[in-house]
């Protein structure tokens, strides 16, 4: 039991959040253990990005708690963020810095003594190294996405939070990223929280999936259930999602 | 009777603007910005009026306004330079919008002239109100205030008319063309550094004060026999002053504006607020100090101790106020996005 407790990387309990008077999340409960890859599903405007922003500490929830590796994001923000790797939206990257400068600044802001060799190797696999000295403003959407992912993986975070990280990536780079994240999770180096609409990623690579509807987690699928859906001929997860949405 | 839909433009206005979606979109953007933060706008307006009244109540205000009214050529040159540079910038922004806007694919004109004129009018409005306030509280005599209003308006018309053709017809360079990047450090991969963060506000400042805008000032400088006559010397001083003020204000504004983006980007990291503000601000502050130092050096050459004393005081005050404003903008941005555990609850 004690081991299970320590292996929990993210604990979200009774989370309520919104913008001004608009309530977006109303009682989200979620746990992710080390080695897990949780895919967060949900229709547009269901609050996936809001939940990720809360987990990243960028939006303060109106109620509820978030713990990263046992550290409360509210009371021990610095300790919690030390274990966090957040992939920002590509349009939020600093357009007037180069990719190399972004890596330098982000690594320094995370208090790292060096940029991880693993991240540089991934940049090489992404064929991103030649673009390091170009301005982010001149990057394509996919290239920005690669940089956002590399920044998220800096410093060996225990929790990797990604929002639609496969948007704009070419198939080869997307495959590299899927395999990289799966390998990281399998090795117990981190847990992955990915908000996505790409059902193939959910079916083939995720350990669990959760459906966010009406500001709450309406349905969860375990690894076994996902495997069963994958084996089903026809629509599989797509039909299961539609049924869950209709049921809610 | 036409009834406007809630949340839309009045029906008759919408019909007029139907063929000018770029203009309509801009008006709606301003309207929505006002509606979303009505109280903030009212407070900002009240503070601006209070600040203007406080400025006008200071002893040098009346003599300066008097002198400007008595020197229409200088006032005209200042106004023309300011509005000319604004027109160039605005024209470039409109041209950029034409390529990147969500309305870019529509087969309709961009209404660029109308948008330019609207921008000039909106910039002229605060000047008009300021001079009007000076007249109301007696800091400027009615004839002087009227002359100032007319000359400033004439300068606005002249500057806008000159600025539009001077901005050129080609495609606008991307913002990063104005940014510089230092040679990569040999051991960069093993040495993370916050130093490049300081390039961000400086590069943004360069984008705000595009080199093409200074062509207007160059024209003003060449318009009179530079340096040989009294008007020539005045014109040179006015042009140099405009470039300096424009550079400084552009840098301060850019730094304050980009602070939010920088803070949001670094919010998920463990950087402390003070470290962020220091790393972000220092290069912009040094650059401003360097510009002010050059101005003071020129003041030394004039051999007027009073000019140097006043100039030093103004330079120090500007630098302090600019740094304080940018630091405040950074701190607010940090609190908004929870950077350095400074989250808003």
SSE order and pairing:
The complex is a heterodimer of chains A (248) and B (345).
Chain A: H1 2-7, E1 8-19, E2 22-33, E3 37-41, H2 48-55, E4 63-68, E5 71-72, H3 77-81, E6 84-87, H4 99-109, H5 117-125, H6 141-153, E7 159-163, H7 171-186, E8 191-195, H8 199-205, E9 208-213, E10 216-221, H9 223-231, H10 237-247
Parallel strand pairs in A: 3-8, 3-9, 6-7, 7-8
Antiparallel strand pairs in A: 1-2, 1-4, 4-5, 9-10
Helix pairs in contact in A: 5-6
Chain B: H1 11-17, H2 21-36, H3 38-57, H4 61-70, H5 72-100, H6 112-137, H7 142-166, H8 199-208, H9 214-222, H10 230-266, H11 273-302, H12 305-337
Helix pairs in contact in B: 3-6, 4-7, 5-6, 5-7, 5-9, 5-10, 6-7, 8-10, 8-11, 9-10, 10-11, 10-12, 11-12
Summarize the structure in words.
- The complex is a heterodimer of chains A (248) and B (345).
- Chain A has 248 residues and is α/β, with parallel strands linked by helices.
- In chain A, the strands form two sheets. A six-stranded mixed sheet of chain A has the order 6-7-8-3-9-10, sandwiched between helices. In chain A, strands 2-1-4-5 form a four-stranded antiparallel sheet.
- The longest helix of chain A has 16 residues.
- In chain A, 50% of the residues are buried.
- Chain B is mainly alpha-helical.
- Chain B is 73% helix and 0% strand.
- Chain B has twelve helices and no strands.
- In chain B, helix 3 packs across helix 6 and helix 6 packs antiparallel against helix 7.
- Chain B is globular and about 55 Å long.
- The chains are: A alpha/beta (248), B mainly alpha (345).
């Amino acid at each position: 039991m004690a081991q299970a407790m320590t292996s929990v990387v993210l604990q979200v309990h009774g989370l309520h959040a919104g913008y001004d008077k608009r309530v977006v999340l109303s009682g989200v409960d979620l746990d992710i253990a080390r080695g897990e890859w949780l895919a967060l599903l949900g229709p547009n405007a269901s609050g996936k990005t809001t939940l990720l922003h809360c987990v990243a500490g960028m939006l303060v929830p109106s109620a509820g708690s978030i713990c990263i590796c046992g550290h409360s994001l509210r009371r021990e923000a610095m300790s919690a963020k030390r274990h966090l790797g957040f992939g920002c939206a590509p349009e939020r990257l600093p357009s007037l810095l180069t990719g190399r400068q972004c890596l330098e600044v982000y690594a320094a802001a995370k208090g790292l003594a060096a940029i991880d060799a693993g991240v540089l190797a991934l940049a090489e696999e992404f064929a991103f190294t030649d673009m390091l000295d170009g301005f982010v403003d001149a990057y394509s959407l996919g290239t920005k996405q690669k940089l956002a992912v590399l920044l998220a993986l800096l410093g060996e975070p225990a929790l990797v939070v990604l929002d639609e990280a496969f948007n704009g990536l070419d198939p080869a780079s997307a495959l590299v990223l899927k395999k990289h994240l799966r390998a990281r999770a399998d090795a117990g180096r981190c847990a992955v929280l990915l908000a996505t609409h790409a059902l193939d990623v959910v079916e083939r690579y995720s350990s669990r999936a959760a459906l966010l509807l009406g500001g709450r987690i309406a349905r969860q699928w375990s690894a076994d259930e996902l495997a069963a859906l994958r084996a089903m001929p026809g629509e599989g997860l797509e039909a299961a999602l539609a049924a869950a949405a209709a049921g809610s | 009777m036409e009834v406007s839909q809630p949340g839309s433009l009045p029906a008759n206005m919408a019909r007029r603007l139907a063929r000018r979606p770029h203009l309509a979109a801009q008006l709606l953007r301003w309207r929505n910005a006002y509606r979303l933060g009505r109280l903030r706008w009212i407070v900002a307006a009240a503070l601006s009026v209070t600040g203007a009244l406080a400025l006008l109540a200071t002893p040098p205000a009346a003599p300066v306004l008097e002198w400007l009214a008595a020197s229409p050529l200088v006032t005209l040159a200042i106004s023309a330079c300011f509005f000319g540079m604004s027109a160039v910038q605005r024209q470039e922004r409109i041209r950029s919008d034409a390529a990147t806007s969500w309305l870019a694919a529509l087969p309709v004109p961009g209404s660029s002239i109308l948008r330019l004129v609207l921008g000039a009018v909106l910039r002229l409005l605060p000047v008009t109100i300021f001079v009007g306030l000076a007249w109301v509280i007696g800091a400027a005599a009615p004839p002087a205030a009227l002359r100032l209003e007319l000359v400033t308006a004439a300068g606005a018309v002249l500057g806008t008319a000159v600025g539009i053709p001077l901005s050129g017809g080609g495609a606008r360079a991307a913002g990063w063309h104005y940014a510089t990047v230092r040679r990569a450090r040999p051991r960069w991969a093993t040495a993370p550094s916050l130093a490049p963060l300081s390039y961000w506000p400086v590069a943004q400042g360069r984008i705000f004060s595009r080199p093409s805008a200074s062509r207007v000032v160059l024209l003003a400088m060449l318009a009179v026999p530079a340096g040989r006559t009294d008007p020539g010397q005045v014109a040179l001083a006015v042009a140099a002053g405009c470039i300096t003020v424009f550079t400084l204000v552009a840098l301060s504004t850019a730094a304050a504006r980009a602070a939010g983006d920088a803070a949001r980007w670094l919010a998920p990291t463990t950087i402390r607020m003070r470290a962020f503000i220091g790393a972000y601000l220092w290069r912009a502050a040094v650059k401003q100090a360097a510009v002010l130092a050059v101005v003071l050096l020129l003041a030394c050459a004039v051999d007027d101790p009073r000019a140097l004393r006043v100039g030093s005081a103004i330079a120090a005050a500007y630098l302090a106020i600019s740094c304080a404003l940018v630091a405040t903008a950074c701190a607010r941005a940090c609190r908004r996005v929870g950077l350095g555990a400074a989250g808003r609850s």
